[in-house]
Amino acid sequence: MKRFFRKIVAFLASLFNNLNEWIYDHVQPSIELVNRLKKAVESPYANLITTLIPGQWDNLAQEAFIKLLTKAIDSLRVTEDIVFDNDWTSKIAKLTQHLRSQSKPMRAGIYHQLAVEFAKQSALAKQLAEAEKNGIPEDQVKLDVKGHSLGLLVQMQYSKMKEKVEANDLPDTDPFLVAKMNAQLTEHDELRAKYAELYQEQAPVEFSTDELKQKIAEKQPTA
């Protein structure tokens, strides 16, 4: 099992610029959310809101969580009118009612998609906050990740938790992974430096490696 996770991690490292950040800042919280939601759905006596939102969170944390969860639920469109419902507690109630009406396999699919959407919204919110701090227009911010790769990452992290595989269980160094990541980081850093040299008049913007190559090609004269 540990060898399997090594291979998956090595593959995912080629799809995400910062894999650890994605896992621990966005994916892990989304899985914890889904696990709390499962408890609320499966227990008729659970208080839906207090089960989803830990009591020790401060108001800012609660507001941020509710905002992300609301957007994630809207993207699932489990009912036709859920997007137009302005009451976030009503959205959660509708989602819970919908889940209780589904078979276990169908529930599993909805839980997985909710985790993916929550992680996506979490990452996007972080990028938007950084863009605002740097004076970058909101319309220039985009999430550079494909849905299927994020779905795979969510599934991997969930499986690690289920199998109780800890970070210490994995090798400290995977030669393939280290070489791949180092090569990617070196190339990306070099391209960022070249972009900054060519676009000195523009505010800093975070691009993927392929986007940096395209921007640099557009600026440099052709032979």
Describe this structure in words.
The protein has nine helices and no strands. The protein is elongated, with a radius of gyration of 20 Å. The chain is mainly alpha-helical and 223 residues long.
Question: What proportion strand?
Answer: under 5%
Overall morphology:
elongated
Sketch the topology as an H/E string, one letter per element.
Answer: HHHHHHHHH
Contiguous low-pLDDT stretches (5 residues minimum) are 165-182
* Alpha carbon gap, first and last residue: 52 Å
Structure classification: mainly alpha
Number of strands: 0
Q: Main sheet, how many strands, which sense, barrel?
A: none
Number of helices: 9
Q: Mean of the pLDDT scores?
A: 77
Question: Helix share of residues?
Answer: 55-70%
Radius of gyration: 20 Å
Throw out a few tags for this protein.
223 residues
What is this structure, in a nutshell?
The protein has helices at residues 2-13, 19-42, 48-52, 59-76, 88-100, 104-133, 147-162, 175-198, 209-219.
